[in-house]
Amino acid sequence: MTAGTTTVVVNLNGVARSIEVRDDASLASVLREDLGLLGTKVSCNEGECGACTVLIDGKAVNSCIVLALEVDGCDVLTIEGLASDGALHPIQTAFIEEGAVHCGYCTPGMILSTKALLDRNPAPSGAEVRQALEGNLCRCTGYNRILKAVSSAADKLQSRHPDK
Q: Which one-letter DSSP state was computed for residue 34?
């Protein structure tokens, strides 16, 4: 049996898009293969590693286990949409400054999970940071630099918006 196609309308990285997707296609495969957004990495294809993390309506999700047709009417943010006006987002800057990028494969997912956390909780505790990142695996590090980067990013964002 061959899968059909469906047109989904999505706000992708701040731009309204109408995209024809196969009914059985994962969001990760559409982002990477159809749209060329290669920042969304695919590793386990089972929703276990977090390399494919994107934000759907502000929530961090594993795009490898979300059908592309499920995002119809949603806001989807990938790592490519995080920087603005040619400037890196403070979270991206913090990851670089703290040396938390290592090989870089898990980094986009880590950064987007961090964004989801800091959007809902601008001053998380260490335990809250660890809980928010528990679905993101890194095979290169012991996570200390990543945890420092999240803390640094929270400080950077707080200094930009002290009223939050």
A: I
- CB-side exposure of 120: number of CA atoms within 13 Å? 13
Between the alpha carbon of residue 140 and those of residues 85, 119, 155, the distances in Å are 31, 27, 25
**pTM (2 d.p.):** 0.94
The tokens for 9 are 């309308």
CA 67/CA 71 separation, integer angstroms: 8
Render pLDDT for 11-51 as a digit per residue (tens, 0 to 9). Answer: 999 999 999 999 999 999 999 999 999 999 999 999 999 99
Name the 3-class secondary structure at 84: strand
Q: What is the DSSP string of 16-73?
A: EEEEEEETT-BHHHIIIIIT--TTS--SSSSSSS-TTEEEETTEEEEGGGSBGGGGTT
